[in-house]
Structures are given as C-alpha cells and as structure tokens.
Amino acid sequence: MSPPARRDVFQAIADPTRRDILNLLVKKELNLKTIASHFKLSRPAISQQIKILTDCGLLRIDQQGRERFCYLQTKKMKEVSDWLEPFKQAWEMRYNQLDSLLDELQSKPK
Amino acid sequence: MNETIFTEYPEGNKLLITRKFDGPLPLVWRAWTEAELLDRWWAPEPWKSITKSMIFKEGGSRLYCMQGPNGEAHWGITEYSKILPQNSFEAKDAFCDENGQINAEIPSSQWRVEFSKVDDGTLVSAMNTFASKEAMEQLVAMGVKEGTVAVHKNLDQLINDIIQ
Predict the structure, then answer these.
(1) Is pTM beyond 0.95 here?
(2) Contact at 8 Å (CB) between B62 and B49?
(3) Which of A64, A102, A103, B11 has the lowest CB atom count within 10 Å?
(4) What is the distance in angstroms between the Cα of A92 and the nearest Cα belonging to chain B?
(5) What is the mean pLDDT of chain A?
(6) What dihedral angle (degrees, nearest 10) is formed by the CA atoms of B145, B150, B155, B156?
(7) Residue A68 in contact with residue A32, Cβ under 8 Å?
C-alpha cells in the first residue's frame, strides 16, 4: 500500500493542469464542461484533477440545477501566496537592482 | 520592468525563479559571478552585500556578509560545485561565521542558475532546492527576514501613498 496522498495547497498547485484550472477559475466560476473544453485531456481526467483540488480545499463544487459549478476558495489560495510573498518581494528588489546595474554597465562600457 | 516568475515544485522542495534581463548574456553572467558586481545588487536595499573573498571556480567559494541598516551582519558562504562558463553554475549556499565556518544548525540549499540568450536579452533561471519542506520554509523565512524587513516598510509606505 502506498501512503495516503498529501492533500494540501502545495500538492494542489504541484501539477500544471491543476494550476491551469485554478487560473481559469480566478476570473469566474465555471461548470465542469466548460473547464474540460479548455484542455486536451478527457473529461474523466479533468474530473480527477478537480476532485484533487476539491480534496485540497481549493475548490468548492455547487450543484445548480443540472449543472455543477466550480468555485475557487480564495482564502486557501491566499495561504500559498502569503507564505512566499515576502520572499518574492526580496527577489523583485534584488532583480530590479540588477536591472539598474546592467543599464549602467551598458551605458558606459569598460 | 520584466516580470519575475516564481514556480513552486513542492514535491521536490524546489523553487524556480525565472527572469529576463535587458542585457547581453556575457554581462549578466559577470553580474552573477564577479564579486564587485554581485555586491552591487545582491542585497535588497537598504542592506549591503559585502564579499570578503570569492574564487569563482569549481571547488571555490564566495564568503560574504549581508549588512543590515542597524548593524546586523549575517554571514553566508556559496560553494561552487559546477561551472559551465556563460551557461550555468551550481552551488551550495549556507550560513556561516565570518571565517566561513558553516553553521550546521541552519539548513543549506542548492542553487542551479542557468543563463540563456533570448531575442532581446538574457533569461536567468535559478532553481533553489531545499533538503525538506521544513528547510524550505525556514530558509525562505530567514532570507526574507534578512533582506526585507526594511523593504517591507518601504513597500507598505509606497502602497499607502498610492491608495491614498
């Protein structure tokens, strides 16, 4: 038996298809069919990814009439970005300084 | 300004930082591999990066100090393990004392930095690999503390100015 799969935010965003699904849902909620239409993968394969995202707490599925809509759970998403945000800012800062240095070096070559 | 792209690979405890620079590859390579140039951008303002010694070759290392605005001094050592000139290098980054004695209580991380020529500049991909998820979180938090407390204040101020 393999150990139970991790079901947290980090697991959720580890897969490119899952990241793409999340990106689609940032703009607005979508039904399963519409989500699947954005991918070359089969409907069941997409459903499987959506199930993982739901298990990880990043998506909520709502039955509306005959259709099932996926909603992004933005609070959970924030958990990811918050954690890395200061790290990202440090690198942005660093790299902006490198931009300036490169500019300077190119404007007066040695 | 070019966008910095951060990609997390939680399964391997990796973080990839990708960024394009508007300069020729040889120049970008120099900025990463020559002490005097590295010191001019490595520390986010108002921190300062001061390289005490640097031998950029396989088996060589860079011993440097990150100096904070309140007299803080954090020493780090980068040990270069593999160098393909104008292409990529690999290194181990660790915390240490001023003599380069590695502090084994703080996890180290591995770097692989790749440089590639693109149409109008140079693409730099820096893959940072950590020993574990815990090590990754600890180091990210520490790197952040070191470099950005002051940065944060500035940014907060800036954001406030903008939304007022």
Answers:
(1) no
(2) no
(3) A64
(4) 7
(5) 81
(6) 90
(7) yes
Mutate to test the interface with B, among A93, A96, A108 (most CBs of B within 10 A): A93
Q: How confident is the model at residue B151 (pLDDT cuts 50, 70, 90)?
A: very low
Question: Strand A30-31's sheet: what is its strand order?
Answer: A30-31, A67-72, A59-64
Q: Which of B9, B15, B23 sits opposite A102 (nearest CB)?
A: B23
Residues of chain B contacting residue A105, judged by C-beta atoms under 8 Å apart: 23, 27, 31, 37
Q: Are strands B73-84 and B88-96 parallel, antiparallel or unpaired?
A: antiparallel
pLDDT band at A81 (very low <50, low <70, confident <90, very high): low
Per-residue pLDDT tens digits for B29-78: 999 999 999 999 998 888 899 999 999 999 999 999 999 888 888 899 99
A89/B6 CB distance under 8 A:
no
Q: Give the A:B interface size as CB pairs under 8 Å.
A: 86
Q: Express as a percent the part of chain B with pLDDT over 90.
A: 51
| Run of H or E residues at B2 | none
Q: Which residues of B touch A87 (CB under 8 A)?
A: 15, 140, 143-144
Give chain B's length: 164
Q: What is the pLDDT of residue B113?
A: 95
B80 vs B61: CA distance, rounded Å? 6
Tell me phi and psi for residue B108, to 5 degrees: -95, 170
How many angstroms separate the CA atoms of B63 and B50, rounded?
9
pLDDT at B155: 35
pLDDT given at position B101: 95
